[in-house]
Amino acid sequence: MATITVQASDTSAAMEEIALKLGEDAMILSTTKKNGKVIMQASNDAPAPKKSAEAKSHSAISDFDRLFADKLGQELAKPKIDLSMPKSKPERDAGPASSGPVSSGPISSGPTSSGPISSGHASYGQASSSKTDIMQTHLVSALGLLAEKLEDIENRLSAMTLTPYEGINPELGDSTLMQLRRSGFSEKIITSLHASFAGLGYEAGVSSFLSHLGQQLAIKNADSLMKKRIYFIVGPSGSGRSTLAAKLATNLKDEHSGRVVALAHLASSSAETDNKLKSYARLLNLPFCHLTHDLPANQFDKMTDFDIMVVDVTLSVEQSLNYLGQLYDHLGSADMQAIMSLQGGSSASLITQSLAAYKQINPLIALTKLDECETTPAEFSALAEQQASIALLSGTRSVVGALAFASGNIISQYLTENFSSALRLNSEHEKGV
Length: 433
Hints:
The protein is 43% helix and 15% strand.
């Protein structure tokens, strides 16, 4: 028996070196990774398995697949014994007879059990051979997929730290990767943006990560947002829809001087009146109207008293999707825009549920009440994972002003301002403060 240890840059190189030194029948005893190198221990203390004709001719199989096929496939490739059919006697050699099950029928005197079988069992022999070929083909395909999965796992492990935070080397504790995790960003987002900070120092790495995340979250065509004719504000109750609608109407009025901007309330019946929105309209000197979801879509073409309308939608999710879907079909996305209000401080699960509920109309996102509650890294991660586009950032202290149109730079700046705060809060939590 020979046991060797090899060191290589990756798994494939290590496997090739083992195959050259011990042959393709070598058995891998252990695999570790240290200082970016793969260290593999192998032995040749194992009987050489038989190779099928198909396996020998399959030259496209990688060394990785072939080594696994030789070892793991040895037993799997054997035909299963069906107790309901006649059984042939296992191969005999010069020594004592095998202890396997013995058939009551005659067998041929071929040198191996895979040789020709007498006519009484010819059909069974052919079926077994065919079954073996099929199993070997499936085995090779499965091992190919296994190789791909193991390579993906190896790539993921290279970025993992299998140690509690308190046991981390102080130098590693200040790394970009560890600080992003501690601040609350999800593993999925950190992994997807790993290239943005890989190889950079801590401060430069964090800055690059936050910048890339801000660009990913920001609306891609901000100029088109102010060119719509009708805006529908949807979102959870209490998320600041009415205030957001009033703020947006004010900004549209300033943007489009000389054009009439109106506020509207869309409800399930005419009995429901949003007094808060109505008071905002009176305060801002804006026209106000009340709409119901049974209003035909073509009636919006006849609203000539005003040029732009901002509508606060208080329908249920199902009613909103049904009615706004009809309006999108009639008016088109060039004339209308759905915007979802999400309150700052909303949990990641609430964000995920809200975005999933309104996914059909693909709304832009407005983060509201940011002067009351901050949006944390975990919440920004949930938005990024759902591929949301943030269009507006809003506070609640004043109806006039305090509304920012989001851009990559603005969101990145907001993320940067909250990053240190998130780290401090998580550090205090870990210490039990």
